[in-house]
Design a protein that fits this description.
Blueprint (H helix, E strand, L loop, with lengths): L1 E2 L4 H4 L4 E6 L2 E6 L7 E3 L1
Parallel strand pairs: 1-4
Antiparallel strand pairs: 2-3, 3-4
GO cellular component, one term: ribosome
Keywords: Ribonucleoprotein, Ribosomal protein
Pfam family, one: Ribosomal_L36
């Protein structure tokens, strides 16, 4: 999982979901698990 300062590029990809957990923003992509990232 990458830690990024901006998730804008990842959330534009198809089938990606932005989730807030424990005060952090996560991007989860079931179709392409390499696209997982966290911000904060």
């Amino acid at each position: 999982m990458k830690v990024r300062s901006s998730l804008r590029g990842l959330k534009r990809k198809a089938s990606s979901i932005v989730v807030r957990r424990r005060g952090k923003l996560f991007v989860i992509n079931k179709a392409d698990p390499r696209q997982k990232a966290r911000q904060g």
